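From the thread on structure requests for the teaching lab: each student submitted one protein with a one-line request. Submission from student K.M.:

"Model Glycolipid-binding domain-containing protein from Nocardioides gansuensis, tokens only."
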Amino acid sequence: MAFSELPPWAAWRHHPERVGFEVVFVQRSSDGYRVHGTTAAVEDGVPLVVEYHIEVDGGWRTRRAEVRNISRAGHGRVVLESDGAGHWTVDGIPSPWLDGCPDVDIETSCLTNTFPVHRLVLPVGATATAPAAYVRGEDLNVQRIEQEYTRLEDDGGRELFDYDCPTFDFACRLTYDQHGLVLDYPRVGSRVD
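Reply posted by the TA:
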């Protein structure tokens, strides 16, 4: 499996549990990618805007993520940084509970499920764990989540993965395009571009 270069932008409509829109702009850097995205949505009657800047290295490991939000509680900001070997700081404070997490996963983003599939390069039928530093949208709380990806046979040029997140007792089948971007994330969102 070899994904092609990421496009300069992508967008998702979030539905049905969260109703809104996410737009992300992608820049190639000398050692990976920089992405800048924004999600504006309403979930359970709660409006929310989340803006993120994420840097991933050439091995698709998250090196830095700055996440800002606007919610009923006001404005917030959190910065996560990794040494690339799985050690993290949150707002400059060492965060050993995140040790071993190569990825950041933002609750309000379809984009962040791109990083593990690029990094893992799984053959058909293989399964791998992908723990992540998970950032909640409304309060920017950071926690560790456990995730697992299983690559299935492709479906006419679309890559299929079974996704399991025991932390939230959630599982689904994710569909990706030739760039490794999510096309369909059941109960969460779908690509519109």
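TA comment: Residues 9-191 form one domain. The chain has one domain: 9-191.
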